[in-house]
Write a structure and sequence with these properties.
single chain; 160 residues; mainly alpha; three-stranded antiparallel beta sheet; globular
Length: 160
């Protein structure tokens, strides 16, 4: 199931990027919902929010390390944790691999979803963001054993 989710996200990510690269000009923007949502072709040569522009060492080497940690988690220690954390890692890994593929092949990441109030992003970015949110939920609401962390109204742990 893990491989299916990762593969599915990567395929969806790469298909959407391929369609944009082959049917739009850089900077071209097509309204989907006028003044709200556009498909805009952007080549991001940096990391998140275009930081580290053209710093290929950081935008390729560091994600490879992060992906390695995700793979280690999935093959060696995931059985010790709640499934929520496993799905978080799967999403981060899939999104990271989708964007890393672009960086290695093209030297940039293709972005296209544009809400005009947020940086332009892609399917891989959505997967990474959802994975991070699930990871945050895990950290906030589950204990070290992966059990739900019960908190009373005073904010202290009932199990203590």
């Amino acid at each position: 199931m893990t491989a299916l989710i990762i593969t599915g996200i990567i395929i969806l990510d790469q298909i959407t990027k391929y369609m944009v690269r082959n049917n739009m000009q850089i900077g071209e923007s097509l309204p989907v919902i006028h003044d709200v949502f556009y498909i805009t072709y952007v080549q991001n040569r940096g990391a998140a929010f275009s930081i580290l522009q053209n710093q290929h060492f950081f935008t390729i080497f560091l994600p490879i390390i992060a992906m390695g940690i995700c793979v280690y988690f999935l093959f060696k220690v995931r059985d010790k944790y709640n499934k929520l954390l496993t799905y978080a890692v799967i999403l981060v890994l899939a999104g990271g691999l989708g964007n890393l593929t672009d960086r290695i092949i093209f030297g940039f990441v293709t972005d296209m979803f544009n809400f005009r109030v947020f940086p332009v992003f892609n399917v891989a970015d959505i997967a990474v963001t959802c994975g991070c949110v699930l990871g945050l939920i895990y950290v906030l609401f589950f204990d070290d054993d992966g059990k739900e962390n019960k908190v009373n109204t005073e904010g202290t742990n009932i199990d203590e």
